[in-house]
Amino acid sequence: MKRYECIVCGWIYDEELGCPEEGIAPGTKWEDVPDDWICPECGVGKLDFEMLEI
After folding, report:
1. How many helices and strands, by DSSP H and E, does the chain display?
2. Residue 51: other Cβ atoms inside 10 A
3. How would you write the pLDDT of the chain (54 residues) with one tens digit per residue?
4. pTM of the model
5. In a 3-state reduction of DSSP, which class is residue 19?
6. Any idea what the Cα angle at residue 50 is, between residues 3 and 52, rounded to 5°?
C-alpha cells in the first residue's frame, strides 16, 4: 500500500487506512479514488497530491 501527500497542506492519504470520513473505504487504491475527490484539509483536487514511498 502507498501513501500520498497533498503538496499544498501536507495531509496524507494512506491507501491502507482510506478516508472513511470522506466515503473512501480502507484499502482503496489511489487510482480508485474518484477524480473529483478533494483534500479534506485544504480543498485542493486529487491532481495536487504526490506519492510518498513508504
Report:
1. 0, 3
2. 11
3. 899 999 999 999 999 999 999 999 999 999 999 999 999 999 999 988 887 775
4. 0.87
5. strand
6. 40
23 phi, psi to nearest 5 deg: 85, 15
30 C-beta neighbours (distance < 10 Å), count: 17
d(Cα 40, Cα 54) in Å, to the nearest integer?
A: 22
Strand pairing report for 3-6 and 49-52: antiparallel
- 32, with CB counted inside 10 A (0-12, 13-18, 19+), is exposed
Q: Rounded to an integer, what distance in angstroms lies between the CA atom of residue 25 and that of residue 44?
A: 20
